[in-house]
Design goal:
It is a single chain. By secondary structure, this protein is α+β, with helices and mostly antiparallel strands. It has one domain (3-210): Alpha-Beta Barrel (Multidrug-efflux Transporter 1 Regulator Bmrr, Chain A). 23% of the residues lie in helices and 35% in strands. The chain contains three helices and 13 strands. It has helices spanning 3-16, 58-73, 162-179, and strands at residues 30-36, 39-44, 47-55, 77-78, 94-98, 100-102, 110-112, 117-123, 135-136, 142-146, 149-157, 183-191, 203-210.
Length: 213
């Protein structure tokens, strides 16, 4: 990793507590099915993520998880053809969710492992596949394929404190329950903007998977 990459990581971690991408350009492919103010229902295409499992408060876990993931995409990896390392473009958002044990069934069912365990994830750009993504040098970085999902999302601007995420989560849950939607799993906390974006203009989201029927 170059010194400029280290600087980007340091600035992100120091400025946000949980860092957003320093060079974000691409968002995961999705279709908006419904828009109601700050709330959207989106269908997401399948994704590949690089994730780490970390423990601690939301902010501390975000810091801890960001570093090995950034190291992976900035060259801490081994190319599949053995010809050195590959560099992977960052996408938005960087996501954080409670760490879960996922049953290998269809549909996927989930159970909580612990309220201080988190999974921090980078979403891989569309041009990569499981067969072409480089192998992480750090064994704690796990590459996963995430199936297509329907997500309910509430968007908000400004600082991304635990309390603000929790308030938006409760607002989204109330909306879904009132509308008769079936919620699946735990919330995903998403941050989109680099630290030099003024706080009032930063984009944050809470996402909850819902049944597609």
């Amino acid at each position: 990793m170059t010194s400029s990459h280290f600087l980007a990581i340091a600035l992100s971690v120091a400025s946000l507590g949980f860092a957003a991408p320093a060079r974000a350009a691409e968002e995961p492919a999705h279709t908006v099915l419904l828009r109601d103010g700050a709330i959207e229902i989106r269908d997401y295409a399948p994704q590949i993520t690089a994730s780490v499992e970390v423990n601690g408060s939301m902010a501390r876990a975000g810091n801890s998880g960001f570093r090995p993931l950034a190291n992976y995409i900035f060259g801490g990896n081994t190319a599949r053809d053995g010809a050195g390392a590959d560099e992977i473009a960052m996408t938005t958002p960087v996501t954080q969710t409670r760490s879960q044990e996922i049953a290998m069934t269809s549909p996927v069912t989930q159970s909580m492992q612990g309220r201080d365990d988190w999974r921090v994830s980078f979403i891989m750009p569309d041009e990569w596949s499981l067969d072409t993504l480089p192998i992480p040098n750090d064994p704690q970085v796990q590459i996963r394929e995430v199936p297509a999902r329907r997500m309910a999302v509430i968007r908000f601007s400004g600082g991304a404190s635990d309390s603000r995420f929790e308030a938006r989560y409760r607002e989204l849950v109330a909306y879904l329950d009132a509308g008769g939607y079936e919620r699946i799993g735990d919330p995903v906390y998403a941050r989109y903007d680099p630290p030099w974006i003024p706080t009032p203009f930063r984009r944050n989201e809470v996402m909850i998977e819902i049944a597609a029927s």
